[in-house]
Amino acid sequence: MKLHILHTNDLHGHLEKWDVLAESIQKRRSDIERRGDFCLVCDVGDAIDTVHPLIEASQGSVIVDLFNKANYDVVTIGNNEGLNLSKMQLNKIYSKAHFSVVCANLIDRTTNRLAAYAVENQIFDFPFGQIAFLGLTAPYYTYKYNGYMPLDIFRTLSQQLRLLSTRSIKPVKIILLSHLGYQNDRIIAQHFPEINLILGGHTHHLIENGEKVYRSLLSACGRFGEYLGEVIFDIETGEVNASTQSYTTLQSNINHLSSDHYQKTGESLLKKHVFAKLPVSIYSSEIKGRHSFVQHAFKAIQLETGCQLAFMSTGLFLNDLPKGLLSMNQLHVALPHSIRAMTLELKGWQLEELLEEIEKQQIALENKPIFGNGFRGKFFGKMIFKGIVYDQSSKQWLINDKPINTNQIYHLASLDHYAYIPFFPSIMKYSRPNIIFPKFLRHILKDYFEGQFPLNEGVNYD
User: Fold this and answer.
1) Where does the chain hold its CATH 3.60.21.10 domain(s)?
2) pTM of the predicted model, to two decimals?
3) Using CA atoms, how far apart are residues 22 and 25, in angstroms rounded to an integer?
4) Which CATH superfamily is domain 273-452 in?
5) Which part of the chain is the Calcineurin-like phosphoesterase domain (predicted)?
């Protein structure tokens, strides 16, 4: 008698691989159950990523629909679900779920309880006993802006294991869905030997054939649907084995090509959402004037935050916006990032230190590839300033044409991405960024364009 655990993690909206993954999961489960063995299917978070147009258009619900069709049993959430969608959105989409969402370390600040869509553990009954699933997600401090209180992962895990130990029927296996990263998984394995299996994610690590750490087995499937994992518990012998299969292998086994039909469906839906009429074309390569994408972005975040000083990089803007009707698809293609506006409060001397950090790295960063932390483009680009200039003649920074007052407090608007990447440590050293939830930069620009260039006004600047 065997229990098979099929697992995925960090899909990040790569739905071009989904049909192959889903068919492989269903076929494997069918084969397992036909032999009289048992199977559970789980995901370890960050399946939702609004870089994909269909996920953007459906506000994540397409992932729940696909997991339902593939007969997933239990999932945890990653930061892409927990931070990129509101509690209301997650409550709505997970209300349709045929699977459980287990996550014990996010508390709703309004109710002081677990989020309505989540459970602290999930127990599955089998003839050989009970299997318990726990779930934890990376406790970013920014969760407070989205209405959560993230809990300490180790204290939470201790409490959950204590609860399981007090049950009248104790589980024969405890499995942790850990969207915490590889290093945390190893620490957990060393300190919590009662956990039999840790399925990992978040750091996109691949453990092809499992890794034994003390008494626990670790397994993980990399990222983007590139692997499907399987862990097999032999209930009679106690033996446990882990393996992964690459997407290429899965694809060859079922003779199924990758598909872009999800992409086309999402683009079609977003194209229907037309919200503004641009009087001129706007170009990602322009940095000044009415045709400049970055200058319109400055105006948008100034309206959103009330700050007149701002900075952002040109690498954010991936496409131009042509004159005429503007759709959400065009804006999504140009700004697919999961990046929000933030405000900073800095004394003049702190601001000068930040500006020097930026200026010293301008050339090195301009063509530097950037990955993660919400960024979905290719290169960093050049940092552009609003209301801030460097005067070559006096060799000093000017704010609205005046030298910086070292003791004055300045308020600036920018993007949270710059607080997460390692190039500008002064941001976190001197300020606690106030991140503006829930809108991403593209949604802030959508509101700006809709207000400035409404569909019912025939403005023409040419």
Assistant:
1) 2-265
2) 0.94
3) 5
4) 5'-Nucleotidase, C-terminal domain (3.90.780.10)
5) 4-205
